[in-house]
Fold this protein.
Amino acid sequence: MTDTKHAIHHKIVIIGGGTAGISVAARLRKAGQDDVAVIEPSDKHYYQPLWTVVGGGLAPIEETVRTEASVMPKGVRWIQDAAEAVDPENRTVRTAAGVNVGYDYLVVCPGIQLDWDKVPGLTETLGRDGVSSNYTFETAPKTWEFLRPLRSGTAVFTMPAGPIKCAGAPQKIAYLAADYWRQEGVLNNIHVVLVLPTPGMFGVPEFSKVLDGVAARYGIDVRFQSEMVEVNSAAREVTIVDHKDGKDEKSTIHYDVLHAVPPQSAPDWIKRSPLADPKNPAGYVEVDKNSHQHVRYPNIFSLGDAGSTPNSKTGAAIRKQAPVVVANLLAAMQSRPLPASYDGYASCPLTTARNRMLLAEFDYTMKPHPTIPLIDTKKERYDMWLLKRYGLPRLYWDLMLKGLA
């Protein structure tokens, strides 16, 4: 991209109108910035954390979607198009429609890419024949459709290796399903298999210990250091690779129901761009993990799932990142030192039963980082379930997207 004749120019351009993009845009408008544009192709905005609950049969999918227009902050220009290239030298973004959007400052937050095709056989069967995923709006209701009638057989729940959004989601749906089958009196007839690429249930020992107990309570067969590599829908078999001891041994599991989570990565166009870390094939936008400023282009910031910061990719992380990005961006615009620092905070609301939740809060130290006073969130709690089901959606729509939380 060397053409410097821009069809459009804005002082601040934000790539992505999801959680991160809308939160930052709202905060910039509150800070008095009057020339902000958001590049976002979708006319729908989703509250994705509730898709787990939808897949567990405890919320309607309609609660998770609103129009993008309804969440776009007043005074922000919405460019309804998809970004497909960035030229940081000439300060332009090229869109899928071939429009060059010029900027003085750029915030990159297009989200993460779901690489369904990295698992042979998965794309073809997704949403039918007992195979579903809570990672899309279309298939989250299918999960419950497949789980609800099961009375015997094998249910497999998988998690891919590498960074993914909401790393707790692959096991949350296993617990919601197992608790449902327990209530129905059929859990003893169902072999529940949880395939995890990690050596333990969770990266923070205090929470991992609780989840060990949850898995044992439901009799879940946990396959550690393993991942799904192929789906054979005709035979209803999933191929699993066990990486323990470096042997990479393959085995197949017959399934009646399969909840599949695909590998994930930075969007392909980010991988190809100068914004990506050339030494890291994952291709995330290369930023300082505390300031969120790009390491080579000081007028570019990134947050959310597309950034290289080594935190857990959750909406709670974005809630803490957005004010840091805005404070540092405003400082950069005035050639001042960057005042704000992100400590890696993330939280993972882990639904462990149909009315219980464990709120795992932690930061870069991988130690518990509780933020709710007087409540021990390291235990499964009913009040935390109410927070997950009702409180957090309200926080999201009414406060976070408006730059108020």
